Amino acid sequence: MSEICRLENVEKYYLAQKRGFIDALVGVPKIFVKALDGVTISIPRDKVVAIVGESGSGKTTMGKVFTTLEVPTKGEAYFEGKKIQKQTYSDVRKNVDMVFQNPATSLNPKMKVKSIVLEPLLNISNDRKKELLAEAKSRSMTYEALLYKKVEEVIEQVGLSYKEVKDKQARELSGGQVQRVAVAKSLIKRPELLILDEPTSALDESVQAQVLNILVDLQSQYKLTYVFITHNILVAKYISDFIVVLYAGKVVEYGQTNDVLAKPLHPYTQLLLSSVPTTSVKDVKPPVGDVPSLINLPSGCRFHPRCPFVMEKCKSEDPPLINYGNYQVACWLYE
């Protein structure tokens, strides 16, 4: 199975507070928020990889590293075998896109829907432009007419009526319609990798199901690679082939979705699953305790203050991510 991108020992730290000249002069230490800490992960091509975890676990930060919106503090990111660096940002951004958690903030409120969706086609690779020029010639259309035809086609593909929405602004649309416009805007340039950050979290159940079905159909039709960020394990189960479990900036478990959810290895994954309500089980059991501060992380395994199987070793040594059967897991129970 070929990979489309990977992270190697990636750390992403943010300054927790500004330091003035006097602070630096007297040696006040810098305080960092450790959003990602030593993350190594490979994303397989043409598959859907879900990233799950509680709020503040680093899911969105990981997505932004894939898209070059964030630069790792330490470690390396690779796309199609090439190291991502400043000189390659342009190429990566033409092949990677992201749908944000609140899509309304990423859409220009003054632009009409047809112009919003068209915009990515105005900044495409030379190879893609040659393809479109050849297609326009074969269809006896002008290049501009073809671009707007592409806009119409992708808007229809995400379940919207082009005639109804083309001349509307984002503020005139419902939440589900705005989300679909954001997906259309990302899909029109045919990205190799699409990052979806909680794309259904703000939608009601019926609209959520419609958007998920559209995403599944488009992924299958165009052989896209998705990184699907969510806190909802049931959504991850429905849409993903692989699942990554993040806790406080670290990968604690990674494997095929069916395997991980059928027999989770890490205690955190087990507790996450026990907290999911179902029609047959009313007594849910959420993980006890609070998510640790990313400024002042616990020593050793960062899950040990909440772990029901904690050992003395867990309190002093951080477990590495190891291969265990078909899984990758970071837990001293499997050393």
Describe the model.
It contains 13 helices and 12 strands. The protein is an alpha/beta fold and 335 residues long. The chain has one domain: Rossmann fold. The chain has an 8-stranded mixed β-sheet, sandwiched between helices. Strands 2-1-4-5 form a 4-stranded antiparallel β-sheet, covered by helices on one side. Helix 5 packs across helix 6 and helix 6 packs across helix 8. The radius of gyration is 22 Å and the shape is globular. The protein starts with a strand and ends in a 6-residue tail after the last strand.
Write down the oligomeric state. single chain
CATH class descriptor name: Alpha Beta
Unreliable stretches: none
What distance lies between the first and last C-alpha atoms, to the nearest angstrom?
Answer: 27 Å
- Global structural class: alpha/beta
The topology string of helices and strands comes to: EHEEHEEHEHHHHHEHEHEEHHHEE
Mean pLDDT: 88
CA gyration radius, whole angstroms = 22 Å
Provide the domain count: 1
- Strand order in the sheet with the most strands: 6-7-8-3-9-10-12-11
Per CATH, which architecture? 3-Layer(aba) Sandwich
Largest sheet: 8 strands, mixed
In CATH, the homologous superfamily goes by the name P-loop containing nucleotide triphosphate hydrolases
